[in-house]
Each structure stands twice: as C-alpha cells, then as structure tokens.
Amino acid sequence: MNRTALVTGASSGIGQATAAALAARGYRVLGTSRHPESLAEGQRAPGVEYLPLDLTDDNSVDALADRLTEVDVLVNNAGESQSGPFEELPADALRRLFQVNVVAPVRLTQLALPGMRKRGYGRVVMVGSMLASFPLAYRSSYVASKAALKGFSNAARHELSPFGVWLTTVEPGSINTGISERRTRYVNPDSPHRPDFETMLSALDRNERDGVPAGRVASTIVQAIEAARPKPRYAVGSNAPLVFALRRILPAGLTEKLIHRRYGLPR
C-alpha cells in the first residue's frame, strides 16, 4: 500500500477510529490534533504520525500545504458541534462554526487536490451529519454548516471525477463519541425557547449515548475510500437505511412530526 491518508481530528472519536483503521489496512496515515505534543498515549492511534492543526487559524491550515501535496486520501472529520435557538445565536459563534466546519475543510481539500489530480487518484471524505438531511430544532447552525459541506462535496465531485478524484460525504447519525460533552451551547438565561431547548438537548444526549460506536463510522469511511466509484453519500447509524427510505415515501410534514416526536418537541 503506497497510499497516504490524512485524517483531521484523529485524537478521539471517529477521527481516531478512522486513522487506526486506515493504518491497519496499510495506509501511511497522518493525523491532526490541535496540540499533538500533549496527546496521551491512549489518544494516539497506532501507526499514525500526528501533525498540528488548528482549524480556526488560516495560517495553521496553510502550514499543511506541503504535506497535503503527497496525500491521496483526505478525511475531513474534525469539527465543532453547536446548539442554540436560531434567534439567539451570536454572530461570532456562527463565524467560528463555519470557519471550523466549512471554510477550513474546503481549504484543506483545495490544497490536496492538485497532487491528487496529477497522480490520477484521490479520495476526499467529508464527515457530515444525518441532521443535514433531517434538520432539528435548535441545531440550525450545525445543520447549515454540515449541509454546506455536503453541498461543496456534491458539486465538486463532478469537477474532479474525470481526474480519478472522488468526493463523498459520510453522514453519521447518533454516534457514541462523547461529543455531547464538547458541544457549544448558546441560549439566553431568560430565553422563551429554554424549556424546549433543554428537552431537545436531553434527547440528543441520550440518543448519542445509545448510538453506534465510532468504529462503525470508520468502517463506512473506509468503504467509501476503497470503492471504485464512491457514492455521493453514505449514511450510518440511527437506522439510516430505514429512515432514508421512509423519507422518500412519507410527506414532508409527517417526517417533521416524527422528528419532533423523537426529541420530545411540540409540533
């Protein structure tokens, strides 16, 4: 195996599991972390070389330019999870979220594409979210960022596939990675949305605790990477095959009601 893969956010959760899975399959794997020098032994996937990357810093992203020229597989996994009532989301928080979840992954991909194109082979996996397909109240900013990432992937794959470079999006549902503990939350103390917001968060945290393990998502990412012609989207977790099938046949209004019911929200 002479392929080189770079996985962002490779010190925990889906990123760590994906980096480990690729290394075990013979890929040369580069993993990123904001502070790789301070990673504990258990945070390092075996066989992975760790590089520093802060997605909020354009200079940090561009500092990987030279390494990205040798990358055949890029997994844009690192990101931020954000919740809050739409009308109360701070502008600075929105800018940060889109920088981390959209702008930085797009820039990393741009830096990797010339080398992939010249070699006639490349795989770019955007780790999105099933929420981009099934939007949820009080998650509008996160939903929008993941939908934007999927939009870039869906459109750009038509530009790059003639060169042997394929972009795809993997949409996890509820995954047990501990991300609920790191989610940023924005809600005013006297917000009229607070009761429903807290109800939604409780259900979201419960679903994630009961979700499938990160390794399941990693297996799906590897499947997408090694497909001869990767599909535009792979969904995993939260009964993905069933819920996507139901979405195709159920009226949109009924789908919304079912989502609200799953999270204990009024319709």
TrEMBL record:
<dbReference type="InterPro" id="IPR020904">
    <property type="entry name" value="Sc_DH/Rdtase_CS"/>
</dbReference>
<feature type="domain" description="Ketoreductase">
    <location>
        <begin position="3"/>
        <end position="169"/>
    </location>
</feature>
<dbReference type="GO" id="GO:0016491">
    <property type="term" value="F:oxidoreductase activity"/>
</dbReference>
<comment type="similarity">
    <text>Belongs to the short-chain dehydrogenases/reductases (SDR) family.</text>
</comment>
<keyword id="KW-0560">Oxidoreductase</keyword>
<dbReference type="InterPro" id="IPR057326">
    <property type="entry name" value="KR_dom"/>
</dbReference>
<dbReference type="InterPro" id="IPR002347">
    <property type="entry name" value="SDR_fam"/>
</dbReference>
<protein>
    <submittedName>
        <fullName>Putative short-chain dehydrogenase</fullName>
    </submittedName>
</protein>
<dbReference type="Pfam" id="PF00106">
    <property type="entry name" value="adh_short"/>
</dbReference>
<dbReference type="InterPro" id="IPR036291">
    <property type="entry name" value="NAD(P)-bd_dom_sf"/>
</dbReference>
